[in-house]
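User: quick one, fold this
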Amino acid sequence: MKPEFQNTSKLGFGCMRLPLLDPQDQKSIDLEQFKEMVDAFIAGGGTYFDTAFVYHEGASETALREALVRRYPRDSFTIATKCLAWAAPDAQTAQSNLGTSLERLGVDYVDFYLLHNVGGARTATFDAYDMWDFARREKAAGRIRNWGFSMHDGPDALDALLRAHPDADFVQLQANYLDWDDPVVEARRCMEVAEKHDVPVVIMEPARGGRLADLPPRVAEPLLGCRPELSLASWAYRFCYNLPNVLTVLSGMSSPDQVRQNVEEHRGNKPFSPDERAALETARSILSNLASIPCTNCRYCVKGCPEHVVIPEILSLLNLELMTENRDFAKGLYSWQAAPGPASKCIACGACEAMCPQDIDIVRQLEVAVDHFE
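Assistant:
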């Protein structure tokens, strides 16, 4: 890991869910409250602020300019922002995002620039728009200090990308104790691939979109019984803080109290004691047992599907609903994770069930997914 990365705070400030003056207007960021949050974060030793071209419809970057850039010395913080090339109509538009971000932020350079959400079919757009060489050129020109990419894809895709782009300075990956051994997300294997390539990781979704901060009572019981003074979120963050090869762990914070709590619990971070490790394993085991569909993500089912339904991803979301006891949360993920092949495309031909080594009643489970998520 680069020497300058050693000074990056392990707790990173995610600026995607900032407080709003009007809940119906994503641009109406409560700037005074945001300033209070920035002050608390920096006072607690925080340095890493994460935003993106599209967060709060662009207002996240301008709010950072007002709350952070204009109020603190440039060398006292680092900023990460992102380009979603696959959402741009052409290469010129995608490459112009950096200049717009710099203007919104009021800076001459960003410390971390991400080609955001590569993987799957989206990678082809980054290739076609020459975004990889664009990032290299901008780094050479000094407008980017470090470039990398984020992805929601498997370890094989990550390995291929790091082989193709070995000069990436960092990657951003989804990792948390719920997804650690999940057969679809494969967080453990993804982290191992990044470490094999000696590329440090920014962790996103450490609390799985907030779900690990709001566990079902039976899952929370062993954690609260072990350390009743700690928040449930702190267990999720500590799991990630103490993984090897981690640059920072992002927390999407929405209030001053969240910032203060996260900062305070980060200060007390230590590796899990044997009792804490046992409590977390118990909680993880209860979560796993709440899932009832024995999908192992072998992907045999998708090879013969004439409608290209993303069956393993859908079964994983059905399990996630069972584990978190939160249908709305799983439904929100379904809206984009299943977009390439939703359950409603199933024609009940049975080809998937004939291929499934676990004998899962896939057609019936897809009917459940349509009922729950569509």
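User: anything notable?
Assistant: The chain has a mean pLDDT of 94.
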